[in-house]
Amino acid sequence: MIAGGRNLLDDAKPLRAYNVTASSRLLVTRGTAAHSAELAGAEAAAGAEEARAAKLERLKAAADRMAARGDGRGLTDRYEFSLENQAGTALSLSDGDRRGLVLGLALHDKGKASMEAGELQAGLAALGELLLAEESFGLVSPSVLEGVDNLAMLLLDIVWCCYKLRDVSRLGVCSERLAQARRMLAKAHGPHQERLRLLHGGFSPEQAIYVRLELLEGVVAFHSGEASAAAAHLAAAQARWQRLQLSPGALLALAEMGYAEQEAQRALRFSGGDLAAAVDFLTEQRQREQERRAERRKQRDWLREREAYGKTPSGKFVDQQPLQQLLQLGYQKGLAAEALRAADNDGQAALDVLGDPVRRGALQLALIAQQMLEEEQGPQSVKASRVWRLTAMGFKEKAARIALKAAGNSIEGALEQLQAMGEDACDPEAAVARGEAAAAAV
What is the C-alpha to C-alpha distance for residues 253 and 157, in angstroms, rounded to an integer? Predict the structure, then answer.
């Protein structure tokens, strides 16, 4: 039975479940059980494909929303997001390039997670996610991609996914992806990996990605009928793999020094198996990690601080750079931040206000009034509707405002804060009064 272009396969469902009405046209055919089973299989396969396509669209939309967060530098009300190079230095990118990179990285990570599931359907989902990631990286300027190896790694994963799916037809056309990956690795690392050596202080770089590249090039060449090229690539992969093998004694020595196994393996590979060089490498890496953590703590402190200043008329946070410039001129921090906020981050306009004694005095009075109000009622920058919801639950208004401020206007987070405050945050009489008022209104 067919209605509206669909096969009605489930006899247990009533016709109204398929939106069949008295005026609907039905096509009824009689076939064998085998034919019915074939139709059912085709319908199930089509349904699975539709579900997979819908999942990919939801995934892309979610990653796209994440990529669009923030004020152009990956900063949001409640999240800290930044992109760093291999040295741990934050990258300065245009909005379009940052969006494409974030979207591509998020989809790539999701695709790798799907690949690890190992099942056929998971592999198909992984391939779709990886192809979406490739499309996202296509939105990034070529000059940006030349300095990173993320797209090259993605291309290797796409080819590897095709191999795991035993999709020979796709493998046959993967040679261009591998060639592109090799070109991009040469630009990012240098033709002989000299950029990596320079980056890591003269240490030899890891060879694992080049083992994968040679191996996949050998597999693709084999399935393309190029036996001699396949043998050459596989021999090169074998030779590189041999160089990755580590001395058990060196690993044991580093373990006795307190280094984790994975950390020790990486250090030995970067140092070409030299134990003393590996120790130097580990010491340097730990120092760099401490510096990165300190920088992240400093950034998190600024995120909390800027929330206290409120947002500009255009809805942005106070910009740190012009604020630092005003501080260097000797202005008090709170006053400079308020001038910037009111001037919508226009440094010159804020400086004009601060340089005018009358306007500066008015700004100081406004700040004092704001501070007195917040001391009495709590933070004023939180959403009034959420304050009302919390006070309706029996919490004091000031406690609700403080909790919302600490939780970034999140009701769930504020409730956790209020529960931690205990009885000091509760106002049972106010809750009863609000309940009676609501009942009277009804």
Answer: 34
